[in-house]
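--- STAGE predict ---
source: upstream dedup step, 1 unique chain passed
mode: sequence only
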Amino acid sequence: MKYLRIGTEYYKKVDKPCLDGSTHSEIIGWKKHTITDDHGKEVLKDIPKYEGYVVVPSHQNYEQEIGGFYNKYKILSHDLNVRFDPKKIVKTLEFLEHVFGEQYDIGLDYLSILWKYPTQILPILCVVSEERNTGKTTFLNWLKLVFEGNMTINKNEDFRSRFNSDWSEKLIIAIDEVLLDKREDSERIKNLSTAASYKTEAKGKDKVESSFFGKFILCSNNETNFILIDRNEIRYWVRKIPVLGLNDPNLMDKLVEELPYVVKYISERKVVSPKKSRMWFTKSQLYTEALDKLVNGTKFYAEKELILILEEMFEDFETDTICLSIGDIGEEFVKSNYKISRGAIRQILDRWKLKSINSSYNWYYKSLIPHSNEYQFEKQNKKGRFYTFEKEFIKNC
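--- STAGE serialize ---
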């Protein structure tokens, strides 16, 4: 039966054509009266009925109906009964070795864990390179072929949108050309990477809380500050992808040809790495020089953020001189939704070769006027150790 009823709504199963000539299965809303117009009222009694939706990921023991509910997780179309032949996955394994480099075994474990244990928390995988023709986008497209409708490839604005129903129930949430350089972006993605539940919101519908099992993969041409992370962060796995040795215009076609055998291999191979953390792998296992580069880029971003904060203060208070203690600076960062330690602030001030003075000073601050969206700008006398910032100096930083 190509029709079904979920809750009180009717749907139709369709095979939607893709650009490459293939099709993928979807269910789309269908009016009850349209069904009866086409097939008569008698057909309604034969339409399968479900209480509502659930999302239960599985690639080995998939069930479409669970306890009277319709499983929104997509069944994969791969034929796992193919006869495995290691000679038929050579090109794909070469490509995966190119992506994962010296961490090749961990990369294969990552893929097998995705397949065998889809609810297992995994690190945020970042594939980065400032160079072209590295295969970053090819890797995302290949993963999409493996996990089909259970993976989505988004842009920055998709992740930032309040409407998240297009990705919140996916196994893999990839963000191509990522630039999530606001502190709230990095905090959100970091929290989601270990979240057990999340509220899905679609246009015109109420939020619905459901289990969250999404894994993030970020792809960027920016190696230094596409996202903000701290030195002690353990949730990121950053891989710098080198240029492909040989530009093969038919690479994707070859990967597609090997796909049935590669899926068979991933589904059956033993995971070599024992589980040692809630994200399976340890910080030392995932360490790369590319991670260090990203951490150092975040430090540089903090310096730029402080410059912007001071420039806004010069303009808001119409002054050429601002005096702030380290605590005052920390409060200004908090207003910008940026978490920074006192030590990190001191490092910036040391690089600027600024010296503190222990005396009284005028502290400028702005506060929201009650019951309005406007700010009031005030000056208060404080006593303590502070730094003096000159407008001309900051302008040349």
